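Recall from the previous lesson that a structure prediction takes nothing but the amino acid sequence as input. Here we apply that procedure to Transcriptional regulator from Thiocystis violascens. The sequence below is the only information supplied.
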Amino acid sequence: MEFITDQSAGYLANHLARLFARQLQGRIKPLGLTTGTFPALLVLWEGDGLTQRELIDRLDIEQPTLANTLARMERDGLIVRKKDAADARAQRIWLTDQARALRAPAIAAAVQVNNDALAVLTEAGRDQFIALMRRVIAGMQEPAIDDAEDRREAG
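The prediction returns the following tokens.
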């Protein structure tokens, strides 16, 4: 079996993600942000006060990765962690005023990267491209959900 990179969905998706990240990094670096912290900020801008577990679930990343990201965000003055009033073992993650102030310019940067990247497509092509990516992502997440349920039942 031959592997042809420009016909591999995984290879192309990875390459596209790196190109998007590079472009985004160039636009958000002047704001003091990185592509590593940006996904967590997007979730927290929608509503902060989440637990680390809630962030892990929403970002679909591993716990050690998020722990490192949150440590950097705390160091950079973007978040504070406070004990959960109902569960002393849990911490809630709250945005600082500094992080809230970065929302508009950071999102504008991301929108511009998306617009620039998708400018080669028609409006209908952009809509179809986004819809197909969502469909593939949903299809790939379903087995992960089934696997997690199987592990809970077996445990």
